[in-house]
Amino acid sequence: MSQPDHTYVTIYDNEDKGLTSALGPYLQGAIKVLTPKTPETLDQAAKNSALVFIALNESNLVLGGQLQKNRLVAADIVGIYTEKLDKTDLQLMAMGFDMCLGLEDAQSPEFKDIMAGKLLSGNRRLSGLFVAEEQRRLSDALSCAPASFIVFDADKRIAFVSEHYYRAYPKSAPRLGKGLSVYDAFDMMSAEEQFSKDDPRYEELKTFWHTLEGNLDFVTAGGSYYRLKAARLPNKRGYVVTAAGITQYKKAIEALEKEIEALRS
């Protein structure tokens, strides 16, 4: 899902194109019109649109609810009567349409203002959706990386956490989110790791997390080794901490040291 260069409006019309013709005068300038022909292509077009118009006939009544359930559709769904139906506006809105109008309403001066307002709000929601989807993709990509990440802002509050940390600290996960200070994050994680204040590792870890500087290797109570690295982001925008598991590397070094010691004895 990528952000479009234009404002897209979707029109799901009847074969006579009466709805498209009625809306034509309002669809000028930076507006691009998508005219899907099937429910499947309507679904795809609606995901990229700031506003969706659907010609209201008996076969199209289910479409409002289908689009409403799709979390990737940010647009208002406006039904336009193109034939007489035995349902009220309220009933159609309960079925998933945000607004229901008659074809003749497109000729009124108020229609232009209504459309402009819905395009503006639809664009805002769509922009927010693009940002949210980009964050989801980033999180998914980083969750597949061998190292875990935490990004802090300039005030040392969490801006992003990769999925690794949620898996590593399930008890802390509900609170390990945006806005949490690095100091609180350290307290939560050290408690879950069962690092007491008299543990020699505690002060080293505390210094690393409180300053967000340098590198640190440490071993958990369960015997797993990790390497932490902290770096400042450009223009003092914050900090990034990476943690990589180095248990196999450490065990290989220990085994090699034992072999060398055995050869010396």
Give an overview of the whole structure.
This protein is an alpha/beta fold and 265 residues long. The chain has a five-stranded parallel beta sheet with strand order 2-1-3-4-5. Helix 7 runs antiparallel to helix 8. The longest helix is centred in the middle third of the chain and has 35 residues.
Helices and strands in order, then pairings?
Blueprint: E1 7-12, H1 18-23, E2 31-34, H2 39-47, E3 51-56, H3 63-68, E4 76-81, H4 89-94, E5 99-102, H5 109-143, E6 147-153, E7 158-161, H6 163-168, H7 182-192, H8 200-211, E8 214-219, E9 225-232, E10 238-245, H9 247-264
Parallel strand pairs: 1-2, 1-3, 3-4, 4-5
Antiparallel strand pairs: 6-7, 6-10, 8-9, 9-10
Helix pairs in contact: 7-8
Search tags:
265 residues; alpha/beta; 9 helices; 22% strand; elongated
Rounded average pLDDT = 86
Alpha-carbon distance between the two ends: 65 Å
Count of strand segments: 10
State the share of residues found in helices, binned by percent. Answer: 40-55%
Largest sheet geometry: 5 strands, parallel
Task: Summarize the helix and strand pattern as letters.
Answer: EHEHEHEHEHEEHHHEEEH
Strand order of the largest sheet: 2-1-3-4-5
Structural class: alpha/beta
